[in-house]
Amino acid sequence: MSKLTAESRTDFGKGAARRLRRDGKVPAVVYGHGTSPVHVALDAHELTLILRKKPAAIEVTVNGKAENVAPRDLQIDPVTRVIEHVDLVIVTAAEAAKLARDAAEHNAKVEAASLHAAELASAKAAFRAERQEAEDAAAPAPASTPAE
Asked: How much is the CA Rg of the chain, to the nearest whole Å?
């Protein structure tokens, strides 16, 4: 399970979010299971690395208390592909285990699809090379020009 350290935040709004992003942080909200929402800031680079693959659950430490969370909603800038905001929902150990199984299945499917695509690309390249060799062998030799 991936681990992140979150900083509590008390300032809200567009300006505060922009300051956080400028400092390399992502504004986030942690909520669920009857708890009140906690507004936090996460390190943008670490969060991006964790979310690169479909994560099962993430252990976020807020004010010294560790919580198992799962990303519920991501807001990503359509041009720069930077994470602008993330909602994290608290999950139980059983929910985290189910998410881990689902993520493993998803990652296996993605891996199989990319392996299949690589095999198709390789076969296509081999076919093109054979066709080019056949065309080169069938083409008449260029006529030599007489020297003047």
From this structure: 26
